[in-house]
């Protein structure tokens, strides 16, 4: 089961890395993590042959994300001192447990569907002495599926190493950055978004200080690599108002197996 899920995710990693399923990743946005007075209100996405969609975000009086709506369907967020919960109309639920301002675990009730049966995923999060997320353990239906180890340099995530429990296979992704400071990073331009159950509010420790411009992913038992290139347009406050992601899956001899691309236009409300 774990191997099946792993290879399905690998086969579609180009899509996951630039958009993923709207229910699982793109429903969330960090509200104003750097205090520049701006909140993300709308995302217009064009995924090429995969279609287009729009997400609208609503915040409560305290600035927390309260609702995200796309295609007439809304995920509603509620908050307690130690937990954030997001619920869709069909009952799909995501939860983030907080301690000391950081996420220590998360839960997604419908992470993967096999023959009509939804399997939940639970993740635990560990941070290093500098406040960066360093280790993520993922449990699929209570069984350890993978362990991710994150490495940082100069305030940026430079490598993620994911070891799969079933067969010991290793998935390694390296990241490159520009000198542009990252402000209000959206999921498509925040490297940790494909590893964690992303939630609003900056609860995963310090994020990378600069803007990611390239990621290169390799699997230990497969040749080739997946290369994703990011480009942006920024407003006067440093918000990325346009993000383009182009991905190529290449063999070691340079042959391109497949290509994918996505464009995101983002709208902010600034004080």
From TrEMBL:
Q: Whose protein is this, by species?
A: Pedobacter ginsenosidimutans
Recorded protein name is: DUF4595 domain-containing protein
List the taxonomic lineage.
Bacteria, Pseudomonadati, Bacteroidota, Sphingobacteriia, Sphingobacteriales
């Amino acid at each position: 089961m774990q191997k099946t899920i792993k290879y399905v995710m690998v086969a579609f990693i180009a899509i996951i890395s630039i958009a993923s399923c709207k229910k699982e990743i793109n429903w969330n946005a960090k509200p104003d993590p750097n205090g520049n007075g701006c909140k993300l209100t709308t995302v217009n996405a064009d995924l090429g042959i995969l279609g287009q969609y729009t997400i609208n975000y609503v915040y409560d009086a305290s600035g927390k994300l309260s609702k995200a709506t796309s295609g007439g369907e809304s995920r509603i967020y509620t908050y307690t001192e130690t937990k954030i919960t997001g619920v869709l109309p069909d009952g799909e639920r995501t939860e983030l447990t907080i301690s000391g301002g950081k996420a220590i675990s998360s839960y997604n009730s419908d992470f993967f569907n096999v023959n009509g049966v939804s399997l939940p995923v639970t993740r635990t999060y560990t941070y290093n002495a500098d406040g960066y997320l360093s280790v993520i353990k993922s449990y699929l239906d209570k069984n350890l599926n993978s362990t991710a180890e994150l490495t940082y340099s100069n305030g940026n995530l430079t490598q993620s190493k994911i070891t799969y429990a079933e067969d010991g296979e290793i998935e390694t992704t390296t990241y490159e950055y520009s000198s542009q400071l990252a402000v209000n990073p959206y999921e498509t331009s925040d490297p940790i978004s494909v590893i964690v159950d992303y939630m609003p509010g900056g609860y995963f420790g310090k994020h990378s200080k600069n803007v990611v411009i390239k990621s290169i992913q390799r699997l230990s038992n497969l040749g080739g690599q997946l290369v994703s290139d990011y480009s942006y347009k920024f407003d006067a406050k440093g918000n990325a108002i346009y993000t383009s992601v182009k991905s190529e899956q290449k063999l070691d001899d340079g042959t391109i197996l497949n290509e994918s691309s996505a464009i995101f236009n983002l709208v902010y409300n600034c004080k």
